[in-house]
## 1
Amino acid sequence: MAYLFIKFLIIYDRMLFVKRDLILLAGVFLLMLGLLPFLAPIYAVIIAIGIFFGIKLFVKNRQKFLEKQIGEGFCAECGEKVINKKCPNCDKTDNSV
Ligand SMILES: [Zn+2]
C-alpha cells in the first residue's frame, strides 16, 4: 500500500511538472508572437528559446537550493536549521568552546 502511495505521489509530481512546463512554453510562445512585429522571426525564436531554458535553469537551481535548505530539517527544540545532524544552538558539544 505504501509503495503504491509513493508511486502515485511520484507520478502526480511528474504530471505537475509537465503541466508547469506547458504553461511556461505557452508563455514563451506568446512572448515570441509579441516580438515578431519588432524582430526578424529568427531572433524572436532565439530569444524565446533562450528565455525558456533560462527560466528552466533558474527553477532547477532554485529547487536544488530549497532542497539544500530544508535537506537536513530543523531542530525540534529551537527551530534552528540542522547542520551535520546537529543543531548549532542545542547540540553544542564539549569540544566546541
Ligand atoms: Zn536547537
## 2
Amino acid sequence: MTQYEEGVVSAEASDDERVIESALRPRTLDELIGQNRVRDQLGLVLEAAMSRGKPPDHVLLSGPPGLGKTTLAMIIANELATPLRITSGPAIQHAGDLAAILSSLSEGEVLFLDEIHRMSRPAEEMLYMAMEDFRVDVVVGKGPGATAIPLEIPPFTLVGATTRSGLLPGPLRDRFGFTAHLDYYETSELQQIVHRSAKLLDVPVTDDGAHEIGARSRGTARIANRLLRRVRDFAQVRSDGIVREDTARAALALFEVDELGLDRLDRAVLDALCKRFGGGPVGLGTLAVAVGEERETVEEVAEPFLVRCGYLQRTPRGRMATPAAWKHLGLAVPVDAAYAPSLFDVED
Ligand SMILES: Nc1ncnc2c1ncn2[C@@H]1O[C@H](COP(=O)(O)OP(=O)(O)O)[C@@H](O)[C@H]1O
Ligand SMILES: [Mg+2]
C-alpha cells in the first residue's frame, strides 16, 4: 500500500462503509436531495408505468462514483413496491450466470446490474435479447451439435449503473428506455445531505458546520457523509460534540482536506507540477515518480478532480498547471514562457 491510499476524499466506498451507507440512503424519490431533473423525470416514468400496470422501461444510471446510483436503483424498486435483485458486471463471467439470474426473476422484479460496462461479451449479448424480448437462448452442447433452447423470462425492469457510459456498446445503450445522468452536487445540496445524515446519526450540526463539510466534499454525496463522520469523531473527542464551522475546519485540517476538498495527494501533484517542473508540460510517469505514487493513482485518483477544478490540463505534451493552480498554492503565476512549447517536453 502506498502513502496516499485510503484517502478520506476517495469517491469509492470501502467495505465497512457500505454498511453505514445503507443506513443513510434515502428510500423514496421525495427523500432524495438534489438531482432534481433526474428525480422529476424518473418520477414520471415510474408513475406512468404503475398506472398502466406494467413494469417501466429499463433504466440506465450513469455518473461518477458516490453520487447516488445504487441509492436510485433501490428507490426505483421501493417506489414500484417490487423486489430488487442486485448483481454486477464483474460478477457475471459467463452467459450462464446471467441466464440463471434472469430465469429466476419474478414478474415485475427490478434487476440492478451495477458496473454494467464490466460484463463479459457473451453475457452482454444475452442481455440484449432479454431486455427486448424477455427471452434468452440457452445454448446446450458445443460445436456443430450445439442447440439453443429458448427460455421465456417474466417481464422485468433492468436498472444498469455505470461510471463509464462511453464504454457501453451502442446496442446495449439503445435498449434502455430512460437514461439518467447524475451530476455533481452543489455545496448547498451537500449541506442539506450533511444535515440529513447528521440527523440519522444523531449528531448535532450547525448550518455553518454543514456548509463547511459540504464545501469540501468535491460535489460528492459519499464524501460528504464520510467527512461528516470524521468531523463528528473530532467534535466528540476534542470538543463538545457539536459540529460547528470551526470544529469542521480544525477536523478537516487534521485529515488534510483543504477548503476545496483537495487532499494530500492532490496538493503534492500540484506542488510538484508547479515547483519542480515549472508548471509543465511534464509526462504522467515523471509526475508520478516525483510524488512517489503509481501512475494509475495519479491519473485516476488525483487528476480527475484537479482537472475539474481547472488546476491541471492534460495535453498531448504532458500535464500542465493552469494559472489557478499557482494561485491555489499561493505562488505568483510565472510570466515567462511556462505555457509555450518547450524543447524539453517529456512525452508519455
Ligand atoms: N441525493 C442524495 N441525497 C442524500 N444522500 C445521498 C444522495 N445520493 C447519494 N447519497 C448518499 O451517498 C452515498 C453513496 O451513494 P451511492 O448510491 O452508493 O452512490 P453510487 O452508487 O453512485 O456510487 C450513500 O450513503 C447515500 O446515502
Ligand atoms: Mg454504487
